[in-house]
Amino acid sequence: GAVVSQHPSWVICKSGTSVKIECRSLDFQATTMFWYRQFPKQSLMLMATSNEGSKATYEQGVEKDKFLINHASLTLSTLTVTSAHPEDSSFYICSAESLGHTEAFFGQGTRLTVV
Amino acid sequence: AQKVTQAQTEISVVEKEDVTLDCVYETRDTTYYLFWYKQPPSGELVFLIRRNSFDEQNEISGRYSWNFQKSTSSFNFTITASQVVDSAVYFCALHGGYNKLIFGAGTRLAVHP
Q1: What's the Cα-to-Cα distance from A101 to each of A2, A31, B32, B52, rounded to whole Å?
Q2: Where are the beta strands (DSSP E) in A1-115?
Q3: Mean pLDDT value of segment A23-36
Q4: I need a surface site. Which of A59, A72, A112, B50 has the fewest CB within 10 A?
Q5: Confidence band for A98, pLDDT divided at 50, 70 and 90
Q6: Which parts of chain B have pLDDT scores under 50?
Q7: pLDDT above 70: percentage of residues in chain B
Q8: Which chain B residues are closer than 8 Å to A95 by Cβ?
Q9: Of B33, B103, B108, Cβ closest to residue A102
Q10: Among residues of chain A, what percentage have pLDDT more than 70?
Q11: Contact A37, A47 (CB under 8 A)
Q12: In Å, how far is B16's CA from the nearest CA of chain A?
């Protein structure tokens, strides 16, 4: 099946710094990428949807200035957590779809810890 | 509105027992897709199955089987002869007309030796 690679798998950063998470589709062109956040023992909550070459669409309650999403190519989307705070500590996971296909392929996830 | 309900928060069974994970969904779309994913402790999501709304045939894959009933808007997942390696969180998800995957709250399955 299709492969989506997410990097890094875990990161620890200091409060106030920014962290960038990459999501790459390795063997298909991802016209749409999704970013989810998952708190411990909770479900995946969609943060935003990004289509290649256009601005991301954020879900209600998600600060777009804090969670910057860039989908500059058909194989790469990035999520940057700006000025991170401890409450941003969470598991972030991306998924990618190609045009006309409804099956989303998920990255391995990134565990962010802000200290 | 689209919604997925997994009423069972946690299930605990002993190895070799059969276990059924329930999933009930809501959607106004006539065309939609239903999924099951497994999330082991490592965190990655493992795709298990996709079913489209026009295919109500039940499916069996090894020890796994799925029962899709449109009349009750349910898509239940049964593991036969459970094993310790089946311990994980299982998510049911719905993909409808809004190009989004809506996840249920998940069911944490613990299989004890």
Answers
A1: 12, 10, 12, 12
A2: 4-7, 10-13, 19-25, 32-38, 45-51, 57-58, 67-73, 76-81, 90-97, 105-106, 110-114
A3: 90
A4: A72
A5: confident
A6: none
A7: 98
A8: 45, 101
A9: B33
A10: 96
A11: yes
A12: 26
